[in-house]
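Entries read sequence, tokenised fold; example below:

***
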Amino acid sequence: MPHNKRADHIKSLTMTPLEREVVLGCLLGDGSCTKSGKNYRLRIEHQAAHREYVEWKIRLLERLCVTEPRAVKAHDSFRFGTVGHPGITYIRGQFYPNGLKAIPRNMPITPLMLSILFMDDGGRIHSTGNISLHSYCDDDVDYMVAELARLGVSTKPHYDGHEKRGRLYIETASYRAFERLIKPYVAEVRCMEYKLVLTP
């Protein structure tokens, strides 16, 4: 099927709950939306060393794509994009209600979404983990603290610089609970396992 006809067919599909969850997780992290006709499409790009991670994401979103990931030599990265889709357009509107990125308050954080956010913007530090939230305001950080507490994980926001609380630290006592939530997904992407703390 030609790309344009296939893209038109994809636009008529209703996103599955899994696809929606992945898109939400990607937009929480490094994913971006770009205009594509009347709709928005999701664009994913990661460094070449994390090609496996790009391929993992496209497997989860393959119904919404017409092209494979491609190398971007100028960035030493791999990139792919979905087609412009009404479902992605709606989700993008939730994240940018006033033109500035904000975490939708009607969006409960799930383990899969948290895993994607961690693989995008998190890492280990000493015997625990942390997640960068530099693109979000204090109210968004507080929302994430509350959502992780709902999942059984205690966190503390820390300041990076003078004013912005740009990083969320997992309380050491909560790291095992955090790991139990994300490890099943991180284990599917071997190139990202270095971000986990090795626990017995």
Remarks:
- The chain has a mean pLDDT of 92.
